[in-house]
Design goal:
Strand order of the largest sheet: 6-5-4-1-15-16
Mean pLDDT: 92
Helix content: 10-25%
Radius of gyration: 26 Å
Number of helices: 16
Strand content: 15-25%
Number of strands: 27
Largest sheet: 6 strands, mixed
Low-confidence stretches: 3-26
Distance between the termini: 62 Å
Length: 568
Amino acid sequence: MFIPGMRRAAVGLTALAVAALGAVATSPEQADARPKPVDVTLLALNDFHGNLEPPSGSSGTIAGQTAGGVEYLATHLAELRAAAKKKNTITVAAGDLIGASPLLSAAFHDEPTIEALSMAGLDYASVGNHEFDEGAAELLRIQNGGCHPVDGCADGTPYRGAGFQYLSANAFKTATGKPLMAPYAIHKVQGVKVGFIGMTLEGTPQIVSQQGVAGLSFADEADTANRYARELRRKGVQAIVVLLHEGGTQAATGGINDCVGMTGPIVDIANRMDPSIDVVVSGHTHQAYNCNINGKLVTSASSFGRLVTDIDLKIDPRSGDVISAAANNVVVSRDVAKDPKQTALINKYKTVLGPVAGRQVGVTSQAITRSQETLFGTSLGESPLGNLIADAQLAATDDEQNAVAAFMNPGGVRADLDAGPVTYEEAFTVQPFANNLVTLDLTGAQLYCVLEQQFVTGRTLYPSATVGYVVDPNGTTGTVANPCAGTRVVRGSLTIGGTAVDTAATYRVTVNNFLAGGGDGFSALTGGTNQVTGQIDLDAFVAYLTAQSPVSAPALDRIRTTAEVPAA
C-alpha cells in the first residue's frame, strides 16, 4: 500500500538483514543509481451505458462543457496514451458499460458498445449491475462471443466477443460456489505486476430482475476485495487496484476533481479494505469525484463517457509497491477529431437499424423531464415523466386487466423528453429495459404497506392519475423487516379514482415485472396475487404517446403533504 505524503521506511532490520540487502547508498551519486520508479498510467471510465453517440440535454454536459460520444472518447484515450508511455498505459472500467442503453446499442444486445470499447483499447472492466440485465448466460456470451440465442446475429455478421476482460470477483454460482467470471487479472508493466480485482455492488439482486441474477449469489465488496488481495500478494503482486461498481456522492459544491463531504457506500467499503489495496476505481452513482479515503485513491468518472480518469502510479521496481498515486478527471470534450473507426461502426449499425429509430410516435407540447420535485427537503417527490409513464401503464391495462392504478419506479425512467416530435428512439431511451407490465391484486392494507416501503427504500413510486394520498413528514418510518409499521402515509388519505381505499378490499394494480419481483426493495409487492403479465412497458408508452398527442407534463399533485392538506 501507499499513504500519500509519507515515505516508506524499512523498520526493524537486523544487521544481518541489512548486510544481505547489499551496500546502502551513502552519496548522491550512489542514490541516483537506484532503480527509478516505474510510471504506470491507468485510464478509467464507468457507467457508459451504451452511449455511443453524444448524449443529449443535461446528460451530454459536465463541468460546463458538452461532452461524451465514443468517437470523441476514443480520440481522448489515444491522446492520453500518447502523452504517457503508451506501453505503460492500462485502460479500465468500473461496470455498467452496457444495459439501460440507447436504441443504437440496445437493439443489438449491446454488441456495438462492446465492439466500440474494444476498439478504443479497453483492457479490463468490472461487471456492474446492468451487466446482469439479461442474465448470466448472456453476460458470458457478451464476453466470449457468439450470436444471440433468440435474435441471432442481428447485424448479419458473427459477434466475436469482448476484446477486454470482464472481472467478477463477488458474483458466485450458487450451485458451485465458484466465481461466475475471472475475479482478478495480473498485468505486467516493465517487470512490475499490477493486480486488478473487479466486482459489482453486493445489492445487485435488489436492483436487477430476479431472472437476471438467477443462480447467482453476491458477496460483500470489502470482504471480497480483501480475500483476493491476499491471493494476489501470495502471487507476488503488491500494486493492487479494485474496479468496483459501487460509489458515493460528494456535496453539490464539489467539482469533478474534488471530494467535498463525501457520503455513500464507497466510504465504508474503502475504510474496510485491506491496506494493501492502493486504488479504487468506482462507479454506479454516476458522480464525479477524486478522493483519498483511508489512504487509498478513490475515483469516479461520472457517466456516459463524459469523463476519463487519468491515474498516475509510481511503482517501486524492487518491491512492487505503489509509491504514489494521483488522479485527474479529464472532460471528454467534443473539440477533438472524431475517431474514424468509431464513426464507421456507428454508421454501420445505424444503417442496419434503418427507419425504425426515426419513426415519429407522438408529440409533446412542452419538455417533460424525469426530475423529481422536492419532498421533505430531498428529491423524493413526483416526476412529470414518471407520472406520465404510470398513466400510460394504467391505460394499457385498465380495460384489458381491470387495473385501477399503476406505479412506476424512478430508476426505470432514464431520460427526458424534449418539446416537439417524439421518435421511437427517444421513447426507447426513456424506457430501455423491455420490462413486461404485470397486473396483480393487492388489498388496501397491502397498498398502504407498499407506500410505506417507499420511505424505507428511499425511492418514490410514481403514481397514476387515479391515485392520491397525503404524507406526514412527522410520521414514523418502518423497518426493512416491517415496512408496514410506518406511519408516513396518513391513514384514510389514500384514494383511487377519488374514493378512499378500504384496507380490506382488493384492487387491481399495474407495475412492471421488475417491481412485481420485489425490485428496488419493494418486497411488499411480491405479496400480490392473480398476476397477469402483459405487454412490454415501452410498447405501452409508445401507444399512449400516439393516442394522447400532443402530450403535456402531468401536474405534480398526486402526492401531497400535511402542510398542503391539514388534518381533518
